[in-house]
Description:
CATH topology of the largest domain: Methyltransferase, Cobalt-precorrin-4 Transmethylase, Domain 2
Shape: globular
Oligomer: single chain
Largest sheet: 5 strands, mixed
Number of domains: 2
Amino acid sequence: MGLGLGDAKDITVRGLEIIKKCDKVLLEGYTSILTVGKDVLEEFYQRPLIVADRELCESNIDDTLKEAIEKDVALLVVGDPLGATTHTDMLLRAKQFGVETQIIHNASIMNAVSCCGLQLYSFGETVSIPFWTDTWKPDSFFEKICENFSRNLHTLCLLDIKVKEPTEESLTKKIRQYMDPKFMTVQDAAKQLVQIIDNKLDTGIKRTSIAVGLSRVGAPDQRIAVMSLEKMLNLDLGPPLHSLVIPAPNLHPLEIDYLEQFR
Length: 263
């Protein structure tokens, strides 16, 4: 069940009716986060929620599916429920267990990104930008950005979040230790993109290329900023979640006019 992007009231009427009837309600908390806390949702729904972390959703999902054979179980997902492959895999697993499923859609960043004025049908393939480490600096996502750019298409970049991620040191131990929650900002993403650009020639995308930064889309304190990637290196766009768009090189006149207000 999708929760939308803003707050507790973004759930659909149909979704709320189902929540009230379910025997158990899980709140998926690692592919994305809502701009309000679990306690706010519980107060609005008038029932307790169980936070479903990565381990429950991926490694231990079979236990929940077995329970769902006899009971009605809801999984609440920020945005739209099928925005992450994890949830598609859950549906396939449920089918193997003979569990009947129902999908309740809602708004997600995939369509709400149009709030910046860029037209949805002019977006190409969406990419995810992961946090780099000292020893791991993948840049394959940049090739997709360049492919979209060469076809005059915008690129929505989903920025990494780390929620209850085990530390590298604890992966080889019996007792797991977890990193503090970490959310990539548009500033972080711009730093990684500029490093890639500096090492790659003739991609069409430069330090001076325009980028669109978005934060907390759908919330009352939503912010949008339009500037060069180079200037975005010093941009503080506030609390998470953030998203980044690399616009196509040739924009529609309406897109140009709309973006102007965010400069």
